[in-house]
Design goal:
Length: 348
């Protein structure tokens, strides 16, 4: 079975699997947000607010930023693509492994992409070696924090050094923070640096509030000209009425939902890591709500065929291959099902 490039493609299967391929908050969507989305359907005989005014006010209050710095989109993927096409960089730096859309979008925009390879023997951690790659002529550095699929957070000091280096050579630093709220790190990291320019932060409710199907992400950028260029690339109504209603409810009525989910995530992640290592598998030290591990080729196909469990194959991540997998942290019982199924497969 050929998997979707982003995981979560359950629609072409004969039966709905237990899906570990998409990494969402295992606590699920807040009931207040789900209720707001349902109730908003009665308003869907009108166009959505193209400027997402109420949603913007809610995010500005929660994140402590001016409303003019916020731009909403149809998930983070939409904003990443628009940001790249607004900047039109000739040369960009990304990590390897990292989210595959970065490279595909940059190449679609005609950009020359340079990969900074992370090393398994260093736990796929970002080190000061990255600084050597950020040279004059670099126009964009696109990072993921925590990185996907490794789950590794960068040290805040390292992020500040990278930002300083980017500003020195005239590059924009864009940091995808979609999983940040699910790590326990400061959810506002780098926010205070936005006013200094040369920095864009990409955030989403998709992961932290389990709204993958509603598609809701936002860009934080203090550069009004760049924000205007990104906004100009949007369709007339980029965010639906149900998505706006759910997002506003999530940000105003349950702003601490991701934080309150951390004990469940940590317990599940620790149990999965220990269980995978007991099975003799190499596991990356993750700080996020997903785990990268190394296993035999074809493990994902066998799990789906025999146990109806969907893993995220990392075959399309540069620097990895078909013997690498990412597993989401789900609920306690579901995590145990995965470990039991893996044990059966590996023993067989």
């Amino acid at each position: 079975m050929k998997q979707d490039a982003h995981g979560g493609d359950i629609y072409g299967l004969d039966r709905i699997p237990l899906d570990f391929s998409i990494s969402l908050n295992p606590r699920g969507m807040p009931p207040e947000a789900a209720r707001a989305a349902r109730e908003s359907v009665a308003l869907c005989d009108r166009y959505p607010d193209s400027k997402c005014r109420a949603l913007t006010r809610a995010a500005a209050r929660r994140d402590g930023v001016p409303e003019g710095w916020i731009l909403w989109g149809n998930g983070a993927s939409d904003l990443i693509q628009r940001l790249v096409f607004a900047l039109k960089p000739c040369k960009a730096i990304i990590l390897a492994p990292t989210f595959s859309q970065y490279r595909s979008t940059l190449e679609l925009a005609g950009c020359r992409v340079m990969e900074h390879r992370l090393r398994q023997e260093e736990g796929f951690a970002v080190t000061r070696q990255l600084m050597k790659d950020i040279t004059p002529g670099t126009e964009l550095v696109l990072l993921c924090d925590p990185n996907n699929p490794t789950g590794q957070l960068m040290e805040e000091e390292m992020l500040l050094l990278i930002l300083e280096r980017c500003r020195a050579v005239g590059a924009v630093l864009a940091v995808d923070q979609c999983f940040l709220e699910l790590t326990g790190a400061d959810p506002h990291r780098l926010t205070n640096e936005l006013a200094g320019g040369g920095l864009c932060l990409i955030r989403a409710l998709t992961k932290s509030y389990a709204m993958a199907g509603l598609r809701l992400g936002y860009l934080l950028c203090a550069d009004s000209a760049l924000s205007a260029a990104v906004a100009a690339l949007a369709p007339p109504w980029p965010v639906s009425i149900p998505a706006q209603a759910a997002g506003e409810a999530a940000l105003t009525r349950c702003p601490r939902w991701p934080e309150e989910s951390l004990p469940l995530i940590r317990a599940g992640r620790d149990r999965l890591r220990a269980g995978l290592e007991e099975l003799g598998l190499w596991v990356c030290l993750s700080q996020a709500n997903y785990i990268l591990f190394h296993g035999p080729v074809g493990l994902d196909e066998a799990l789906l065929r025999q146990d109806n469990i969907l893993l995220r194959s990392c075959a399309n991540f540069s620097g990895l291959g078909p013997d690498w997998y990412r597993a989401a942290v789900r609920g306690t019982e579901e995590n145990e099902w995965l470990l039991a199924a893996l044990a059966r497969q590996l023993e067989g």
